[in-house]
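Complex record, two chains
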Amino acid sequence: MNFINKINKNLIERYPTVWNTKIVWMLLISLPVHIIFFLIGYVSHINPETLHYGYATNDYFKSGMILVHIIISMLILTGWLVAMFKNNAFKNFYPISSIQLFGQFLCYFIIIFCSISFYFSYMFGFKLFITKEYPDDLMVKNVTVINKANAFLSTDYQSYQLSQRKYPQIFEDLHCETNSDYIDYSKNHYAIRNEVYQFYSLYQKAVTQKNEYNEFLYPEEEQKKNIDYVHYNIKNDTCFYFYRKEVVDVSEYVKSAELSYYNFSRPFYTLSERNDFDRPISYDYTEYKSYYRNEGNAQLNQQIIELLDRKNPEEIKALLNDFLNISKQLKIKTNLNAENWFKIIYRPDNFEVNQFIHTNSYMNPKSYYIEDEVEEATATAGAMAGIVSKNTTHNYFQKNHIDYFYETGTLKNTLENIDSVKNYDFISQNIHIYLWMSFILSALIFSFRVTNLRTVIFTGITTGVLSLLVGLISLMYSLSVSSYNVEYFTSYFILALGFVILSIPIFMPKSGSKLFRGILINMSILGFVPYVFLILGIITMHQKDACTEIYNYSDCFILLDWLDIIPTSWILLTTGFIFLLIYTSVIKKWRALPE
Amino acid sequence: MGKHQQRVKEVITFFENKDLFLGFRKLLDCAMDTQDMAVYKETVELTDWKEKHPNEEETLIHRSIALLKKIRNIEVKEHHTNEHVLKATEITKSYGNQKFTLGPVSLTLKKGEVFGLVGENGNGKTTLLRILAKELDYSSGTLDYSFAAKKPTDYELRTKLVYIPQRTEKWYGSLMDNLRFVLSNYGEKPEEIELRVLMMVARLGLWNYKHLKWSELSSGYKMRFELARTLLRKPEILLLDEPLANLDVLAQQIILEDLKSIANSVNNPIALILSSQQLYEVEKISNKVIFLKNGKYNEPKPETETEKPTLILELDSNSTREELTNVFSELAIEKITFNGGIYMLYFSGETAFSDVILTLGQNRVPMTYIRDISASTRRFFVN
């Protein structure tokens, strides 16, 4: 206690603003809270099961930590305000320079920011734990094992179809046609159940011309002959269309169209590059599907083929064991063990896939099968539904499930979570929310400290009334004059109103009552940044409109688009601070004038 | 011998005559005038000792005189200026469609002067004080402040122009911290702050109350703490609205004496205006009394040598009006008025107060109280 008193006495005698704002104590109080949040973040995901669900980077908000955070922040800030409001040098007309007054605001800002930014400490802890627990080299090793072993985790059938073959190189260059309309049955093709595969070489046509809707034109010749493209690819200003050229015989490599481990080429997981957080694979379902269907990996396919060709049971078992060990560490649920899994896989003649594994433990294979069959029968209801549909690979897949399961989705979530937490730039993504919250709160407290509660309340009322007025006048304008440019009218109306509000305390400090000027001062303190933003918005609005009228949109300079969100935020924040620094002299003048 | 030395000598006499209560307060005034931290330290230590040893009078006298002798040897720069700090010319203030108009009021205030502002409730005392404190705007006239700082901004002006309302605002937190905070904001040297605060606390008789909370203080002590806070600001003008309200008679006298004494500091005098209902007490310490009636201030005309003013007396007696008329018939009484409790007696300027008392004694008139109010603003109240 003596120590605290000693520091307090020292502060009050030397730095009255620092003493009054209690910044030293507030920082000292928020420091242990930050440490506690860091520790909570560090231990929050010790159990790998916490990583089994999607978007672990948002766990802070999903787990209720945010509520604890809000309660602690509110308690700290309330305590602080009670302590700080005990003294007010400015209201008592103690000598205070404009810089000191601004210093008070700065102290409020720092205190509030430190008292509401526990999220960052939590995330630092969380990220540190994940980085230490799952270092990059371990993850590279694990993902390699997972990707290879996943080839034998037959939870679907699509991965084992002939169309997935990517090795040798020829399969990468060819297009595997599965649409029976394009199959030339007179040439080398592969049929199984109701599916058929044929390999085509492709030729490409480059197009640079566009139509009036800014779409690439279709190549003239192909259009005339009514030839459908296989796929197209746009690079810069050119569109490359790909067309079937001729059927290629791949019988050297392919003996049958049966589902086979030889065809497996799909990596289960690809570790993201640093700062490559927004990988499409993880978050966009359609992208995911496209990836799933087309982005086979030749290297993985080669590794699998070579492994199978070696026909070494021990090697395969070792791989499965490694995979199951990783799964155990990550607490992924499965009832597989290396021995029985190996029995499912090992068909040394052609490594056909004829048994399938469930993706979760609670799925009853029988009900699953019946449900799907009913669904399919309904879907194909009509003429030949029954017979044809029963001969599908999908049916085959459904009928051949065995009582083993492995939660592949959980494994994927876990890997994605580890990866995303390690690469998540949580500071630059979120700091502006906390900066702005701090700025708004500190501006509000500053308003209250330099004026009084009555003025602050009347500021709120006046703002409400003015907003209503602006709304009504805009509505009247749009109804009676023009609804076409009502946005411009409203923007300019607010601009003019804002100019009046800002000008009166600066240029006419003696006009109206002190309360009236106090309200305008409070509105200026709180409203200057939105005012600057409005000006930027009006400029942008003009630019956009001029752009659509005169230029091609892509060639235009649009201020807010050019600045982007984060730089705009920094600019506005800096503007707010500079404004308040200058505006303190206006506040002092107002304070000293009689009522 | 300078003014300071004269004061110290006077204080030593108080101690020699064992007027300890008055003497110690005056000692503190002299010590404060030195602005010498060594003296402050010794004075603070002596105050502390005094409070801990209330019965050791002889030692206190001895130590106090020794300290005063030291204080006497310190040179104190006297404040010499006849310039006004405040000059109000024809100030008026109208409220609500001219229903009430204050003024015109003109006054000139110098440092060291004490003005009393009296008048019945609702006659504009607080309004005038607030106008002079720049808290309220006025309708017409001019206000001119002449402070030590040249061309101060409005805010700077108000740091040295302090108004204490009748109802002082509540203090929050430690009383001592509040006082330290003042000096710190006023840029006092950090190492001197504690001593200056303790000195002020001692001077205003707050030594044993400095560790209490605001809510634990009586109204009188709240006013004293408010005064301590204000005086630490070294104001050039101090405006007090009803500082005597809620104080007992003795406390009123002491605080008025203190105010007078502090306002008359040798090196740091303050111009002081205080409003009050306590006419006699205020008149006793004021250089000038401003009486406001219906917002108007009529400055008394200067007396001429040839024309002697009427003798006006206030008398509390059980006698009837007839009896009194008979008693005073020889003294050429001009008028007797009775307000239900007190008689007002008006004599010609030739009559002496002593003759009236003599007549009352000779006629054995029963009375509890008599006072000459010829020069007092009291005469305006009873009219």
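Note: Chain A touches chain B through 26 residues (CB under 8 Å).
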